[in-house]
Amino acid sequence: MLRLASYNLHKCRGLAGPHAPERNLAVIRELRPDIIALQEVDFRLGTRPEALPRSLIERETGLVPADINGTGENSLGWHGQTILMRPDLAEAAVLRRLPLPGLEPRGAVALRLPELTVIGLHLGLTRSSRRAQLARVSAQAGRIGGDHIVMMGDFNEWRDDRGLEMLSGFRVVAPGPSYPAPLPRLKLDRFAISPGLEIIASGVGNGAQARDASDHLPIWADIGFA
User: What is the rounded distance in angstroms from the CA atom of residue 135 to the CA atom of residue 118?
Assistant: First the structure.
């Protein structure tokens, strides 16, 4: 069993600032994930410097970031995304970047492990872009991911009955409302798991610190191999 999680950090600014990455790292530590996909880990402007300091991650969480060539020398992620994992998992991990179509620059990060491929997503703001992006990821997932695949991240989709049609071969799970963090109403953050995997338990990290650390709450799932 592995505990997977996803968390949109909102550049570690909470709802209105100030920049306080220690809060986000405390939320991640409380989740105790084996692997976590993160969104908005870098600032948007200039060389996109890291909003989540690389130097604090392992000390505060015991996890290490995937080796990604960022959009700038000081970036932590690619298109604002990265994946953290246990150090022993990192030894066998291979990461690929997946450019995605749409009106705004977007990309996914695919982490391949010996028995599992995890794809971190932060989809676009329009449904037409999200559909095109999921079509691209779904088409590539089978070629790079083998039999067991989990997509997870900020899908930016608030409907259960629209926009996710391209994931017909996956089981899509939203553990609960995750946005906005203080009074969550929308299920924007989701998992999509391939056949052969099962979700043993799942939930939303909704502690008091999580409600202050970002505009999204994190989601988690314990995944087993059927």
Answer: 17
pLDDT tens per residue across span 142-170: 787 678 999 999 999 999 889 999 999 89
- Tell me the per-residue pLDDT of 56-84, one tens digit each, with 9 for 90 and over: 999 999 999 998 866 677 899 999 999 99
Give dist(CA 160, CA 47) in Å, integer: 36
Which of 150-168 are b and which e, b meaning 16 or more Cβ less than 10 Å from the residue's Cβ? Answer: bbbbbbbbeeeeebbebbe
Q: Which of 2, 1, 27, 29 is nearest to 12 (CA)?
A: 27
Question: Which residues, in sequence order, are bridge partners of residue 98?
Answer: 108
- Please return the burial class of 208, using the count of CB atoms within 10 Å of its CB with bins 0-12, 13-18 and 19+: exposed
Helix (H) or strand (E) holding 90: helix 87-90
- Cut 0.90: pTM above it: yes
Element (H, E) at 211: helix 208-213
Query: Across 78-140, where does the E strand assignment appear?
Result: 82-85, 94-100, 106-112, 117-122
The upper half-sphere exposure of residue 3, i.e. CA atoms within 13 Å in the direction of its Cβ, equals: 17
Length of the chain: 226
Nearest to 62 by CA among 90, 82, 81: 90
d(CA 154, CA 122): 5
Contacts of range 176-179, beta carbons closer than 8 Å, 24 or more positions apart: 176/203, 176/204, 176/219, 177/204, 177/217, 178/204, 178/216, 178/217, 178/218, 178/219, 179/215, 179/216, 179/217
